[in-house]
């Protein structure tokens, strides 16, 4: 039987295509590749010949990707990133295993950094580059990141595998001195809203079974980091994941007057299916799962 698998495009053409998609112009793509613009133009023409369909809009000497090319660019960018990571892993045999890990702020600073020394001590071959990311960021939007830690907001995506390693809980937190001067009625409180997770108050009311209230006052900040800082300063109550305020709760800088509500999804380590068996990801995944089990046992014993 004849082999009907499609012929892969020439690698040089794909490299030129990827550079054009990333850089936005022939001149910038040529500079990125260290060639003249005419060479890039020739490669993208050969790519269109290969597929037999137009991939670019040509107007006034400018070349831009059409809708079909944009879909291809996403796949090519991810594929090249996977190849680069795999090549780095092969070339680092016997040396450090490198991993670029995306973690939402403030969990990156408040929770993960407190554990990084233990991870380094337990997995001496693993070198983690911590990348603070927005809560809503997905791996499809970040081809240069190997894996992401996601909380209760995680939603399954195609080609992504996710492993739960720790329970997730969230709730209102505030300054203990300010709370002592305020009644326990939520409707009399100032609600601090973090714009990047503005839905958390609604989620908490729904998932905790607490009746929604009309707050005495509402104030907003661009992200959860600032919202937590405002709560510590006594400006009101904000909703925060427990992992993001772990150190502040331990020090007494914040209290959770209404407790925390568990989220079924928990915290998950997410990576591309193609990367799930890579040594750095396997090593971190096993460490996180073991650490999460130990933490749950401690909570159960208390």
Question: How would you describe this structure to a colleague?
Answer:
The protein contains ten helices and ten strands. Helix 5 (107-122) links the parallel strand 3 (97-104) and strand 4. The chain has helices at 11-23, 26-33, 37-51, 67-91, 107-122, 176-180, 200-208, 224-232, 246-251, 279-301; strands at 56-59, 62-65, 97-104, 126-133, 147-150, 160-173, 190-194, 217-221, 237-241, 261-272. The chain is elongated, with a radius of gyration of 24 Å. It starts with 10 loop residues before the first helix and ends with a helix. Strands 4-3-5-10-6-9-7-8 form an eight-stranded mixed β-sheet, sandwiched between helices. A two-stranded antiparallel sheet has the order 1-2. The chain is α/β, with parallel strands linked by helices and 302 residues long. Mean pLDDT is 85; it is low at 298-302. The protein folds into three domains: 11-79, Arc Repressor Mutant, subunit A, CATH 1.10.10; 89-165 and 264-301, 3-Layer(aba) Sandwich (D-Maltodextrin-Binding Protein, domain 2), CATH 3.40.190; 170-263, D-Maltodextrin-Binding Protein, domain 2.
Helix/sheet category: alpha/beta
Second-tier CATH architecture of the largest domain: 3-Layer(aba) Sandwich
Q: What's the total number of strands?
A: 10
Output the CATH topology of the largest domain.
D-Maltodextrin-Binding Protein, domain 2
Feature tags:
D-Maltodextrin-Binding Protein, domain 2, 302 residues, 3 domains, 8-stranded mixed sheet, 10 strands, two-stranded antiparallel ribbon, Arc Repressor Mutant, subunit A, alpha/beta, elongated
């Amino acid at each position: 039987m004849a082999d009907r698998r499609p012929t892969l495009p020439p690698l040089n053409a794909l490299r030129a295509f990827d550079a054009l998609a990333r850089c936005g112009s022939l001149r910038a793509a040529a500079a990125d590749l260290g060639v003249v613009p005419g060479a890039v133009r020739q490669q993208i023409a050969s790519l269109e010949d290969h597929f037999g369909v137009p991939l670019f809009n040509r107007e006034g000497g400018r070349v831009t990707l059409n809708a079909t090319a944009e879909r291809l660019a996403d796949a090519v960018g991810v594929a090249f990133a996977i190849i680069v990571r795999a090549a780095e892993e092969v070339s680092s045999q016997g040396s450090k295993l490198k991993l670029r890990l995306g973690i939402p702020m403030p969990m990156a600073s408040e929770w993960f950094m407190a554990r990084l020394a233990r991870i380094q001590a337990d997995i001496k071959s693993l070198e983690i580059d911590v990348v603070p990311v927005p809560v809503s960021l997905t791996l499809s939007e970040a081809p240069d990141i190997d894996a992401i830690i996601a909380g209760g907001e995680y939603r399954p995506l195609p080609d992504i595998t996710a492993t739960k390693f720790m329970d997730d809980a969230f709730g209102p937190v505030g300054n203990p001195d300010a709370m002592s001067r305020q009644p326990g009625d939520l409707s009399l409180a100032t609600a601090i809203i973090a714009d990047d997770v503005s839905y958390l108050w609604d989620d908490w009311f729904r998932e905790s079974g607490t009746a929604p209230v009309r707050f005495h006052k509402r104030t907003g900040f661009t992200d959860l980091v600032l919202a937590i800082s405002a709560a510590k300063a006594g400006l009101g109550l904000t909703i925060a994941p427990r992992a993001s305020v772990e150190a502040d709760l331990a020090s007494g800088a914040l209290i959770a007057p209404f407790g925390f509500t568990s989220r079924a999804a928990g915290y998950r380590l997410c990576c591309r299916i193609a990367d799930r068996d890579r040594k750095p990801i396997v090593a971190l995944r096993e460490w996180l799962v073991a650490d999460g089990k130990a933490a749950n046992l401690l909570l159960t014993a208390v």
